[in-house]
Amino acid sequence: MNKLKKTKQMRKKVIRDFNTTGESISDLSTTARGMDSFSNRLHNSEKILDSLDKQFMAATKLTKADISILMTATALQVVRQYFLSKINWTADKDERLDDKKAAGEHQYDRNNRETTRYRTTVLEINTNPVPFDTQNGSKSFGENLGGGKYHRLATLGHDPILGWVFGTANIATRTVTLANLHSYHVTYDLIGKRYGDMFSGIADTPTVLYRGLIHNVYPLDLNNFSILACSIVKEAIHLKSDIFSKQGLALPGVSLLNMDLSKKLCDYGVDMYNVMRIAEKAALQAALSLAINILISMVHRLFYKAENSENIELFKVRTHKILTYSNLLATGSNVIASSIMSATGNVSGGVQSLDIGGSLVSIGQLFYDSKFIGRVKEEFLKEGWANEIAGDKLIIPNRL
To answer: Does residue 399 form part of some domain?
Structure first.
C-alpha cells in the first residue's frame, strides 16, 4: 500500500516537473520573440522616426521647417510653465509683516480731532488714524466686532472694494460703518483711564454717504473737495498696508453677505493678499505666453518666401497651427511632462534642488533628442489632437 502511494506521489511530481519545464520553455520562447522584436525596433529606429515624421507632417499639414519651429515654441512654453510654477505665489500669515510693521511708523496728533458731527478737516485726516479702526465702545451699542483679529471683517472701510465708498465716506465724516450697515460717530475721549477713539453715537448711514461723498463734490467748494481727496488717499494707504499684514483683508463683499463665511475664509488664508498673488501669477503667465506666441509668429514669418507663389493666408494658417499645437503639447502631453520631471530631478511632484541654469539645459537637450521628439509626435498622433484642433481628417496609425 505504501509503495502504491509513493508511486502515485512520484508520478504527480514528474507531471508537475514536466509542466514546469514546458512553461519555462514557453516563457523562453516568448522572451526570445520579444528580444527579436526589440532588436528589430532598435535596428529600424531611424526608419520608425522617419515614418513618424511623415505621418506627423501629413496629419498637421506642417513642413519640416514648421515642425522645427513648433518644437522650439513648445520648449519655450514648457520652460515658462515649469519655472513660474516653482514660485511660491501664496504666503502663510506667519510669513507676513505684523500689523504695526505693515502700517509703518505714524505720528498722530489727537488734538486735531474735531467734534462736529459728519464733518472733519484736512488737518484731522492727515494727523489721525482712520475712524473705522476703533472698537472701543462698540459693545455699548450692542455691536460685537470680533476683537482685534476680526474687526476688519466687521467694518466696511476695510473691504477692498466697498471700502473705497464707505471707508472714504467714514474718513470724511469721522464715522464707522459696519458690515450690518449700522453707522456710528467716532470721537476722541477718555476710555477708563486712557484716551482713545471710541463709538460715541448712532449715525445715519445714508447721511454718512451723502455728507462724506456727494456734499464734498456738489456744490463745488475747494475746501470740501480737498477733504474728499485726502479721504480717498487715506483710504488707499490704509487698504494697502492692511492687505500685506498678517490679518490681511477679507475678499470683497463677503462680510456684507455672510460674516461667518468671511471669518472661515480668512482663517484658511483665502484673503485679498493671496488672491492678488495668484492673480499676479495668472497675469504673468498670460503675458509671457503671449510674448512667446508673438516671437514665434515673427520667426515663422521670416520663412515665408513670396517668390514661391505660396498663398500668404495659407501660411498664416500654418503659423496659427504652430501656436495652437505648441500650447497644447506644453500643457497636455504626458510624454513631455514625465520627461521634464525626470530630466530636472522632479520626483513625486517635488523639486529636490532647483538649479535654474541646469534645468534649462536639461529641458533644451530634450527637445534636441530625436527619439524624444518622436515620442511626442507619436503621442500627438495617437491622441488625435490634430483632428480635434484643426479639424483635419486623421487616421491614427498602429504603434510602430
So the answer is: no
